[in-house]
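Before a colleague's protein record goes any further, I have to sign it off. My question to you is simply how this chain folds and whether the C-alpha cells agree. I do not need a full report, just your reasoning and any doubts. This is what I was given:
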Amino acid sequence: MHVLWLIPNYYSFLVEEIQAMAPLVDRLTVVSQSPAQEIKGVRCIEIPKSRRSIAGVVDRVLSAVRLLAYMPVPREVKHLEAFQRVARAGEFLSRYIETEDVDVVHCHFAYPEGTAAFPYLRNKPLVVTLRGVDILTCESIGYGFCLDSFYRKTVGKTICAASRTTVASITSAQAVGELCGEAVDTRVIPNGVDLSSYSREVSGQAVIEKFGLTGKKLILAVGNLVAGKGFNYLIEAMGVIRAFHCEAKLLILGDGVERQELQRQIDDAGLTDHVILVGRVERGEIPSFFAACDVFVHPSLTEGFGNVILEAMAMGCPVAVTNTGVAADLVDDGVNGLVISKENPQSIADAVTELLGDEGKAKGMGAKAASAVEGGSFSMNSRAKAFVDIYSEIVTGKPNHVT
C-alpha cells in the first residue's frame, strides 16, 4: 500500500509518527511546503515553488477555479494568502497523484492540508487527522480556526469530504459532530506518547536540591507560556494556596510569548520567591521534575490532547486538570485526579489545597492515575497501527489489524 501524508511542517511529534508508520506500509511518501527531511524508509518531498511560465500560470488559474467550488471566496488578505497556499499544494498533488500509484491520502490538519487535497484526489480516499486548533475553539483567547467563518466553512467541507476523520480525544470528536453532524465517520485515536522514560522509579532529588525544595511542597506545571495554557490563573491561585500551605512553591516549565507578562504578575503579587518560571527544559530532564512534585496542575483552557497530562499521570503524580483533551477521557474526578474549572483561580486553589493537605489521598490518586495510563493504548506504535487499520478498511473493506 502506498500512503501519501500531507503535513504542514516537520514538527517533532509528526516526525515520530512518520518513523512509526514507515515499517507498516509498503511505501510512505510525505509531502510538505517545508524543506524535506531525511527520514529512513520514507520519501520526503517539498512542494515546489509555483512555476514562472505560461503553463505554470495556467495551472494556478485552473487550481484556483477548482478550489472556488469548495472554498468561500477570499475577502481578506489573510484569506487570500491561505487560498494561494492551498492552491499551490493542490496544483502539486494533482500532478503527483496522477503519476504515482497512491492508495490513500492522509492529511494532518484539516486546514490547509486537508483542503489542499480533497479537490484533487482523483477518486483516492482521504483521511483527515485533526490536531486541535483546526476544530476546537476558545473565544476568550481567540483560539481556533473555526472562530473565523471563512475557515469554519472550509474546514467543515473538508471534513465532510473525507472518507475518515481522526481525532485524539472525545472532546475533539464532539466538536466535529457539532460542526458537521453526527454522520461524519470520526475515530478517536489517542496521541502516541513515548512513556518509557516516565517511570515511577525516576528520582527527583536533583530537582529538589537545585531549587531548594527540601521541606517544601512542589506544585508543577508544564507547557508553552501562551494565553491558552491558563498559567495566569494558576499564579493567581498561589496567593490562596500559600495561605494554607506557606511551604508551597510553584515551578512552571516552558517558554513563550506570555513570559514577561507572567513574570510581571508574579512580581506584582509578591510571589517572586514562591513562583519560578524555569524556562524551557530538555525533554530528558522533565521526568525528574514530575518525580519531585507533590501536585501537577494543568489549567489549560483548551487542548487537542495534552501529552503532558499523560506523562504526569504515568509518573504517578496527583493531578489537578481542566476537563480538556485527554483529561476529559482519562481523569475520573476524585478517583485518579481532580477536575478544576477553566479560568477559575479559586477552583485551582481548592483542588491543590485538598491534595497538599491529604498526602494519603494524593498518593492514592497518583497510583490510580498511573494505572489508568498503563491500561491504555498510548504508544506511537499503537497510533500508527490504528491508522493502518483505517487505510486497509477504506481500500479493502476490512481492517488489517497490524501486529
About this structure: The domain at 2-192+379-396 is CATH 3.40.50.2000 (Rossmann fold).
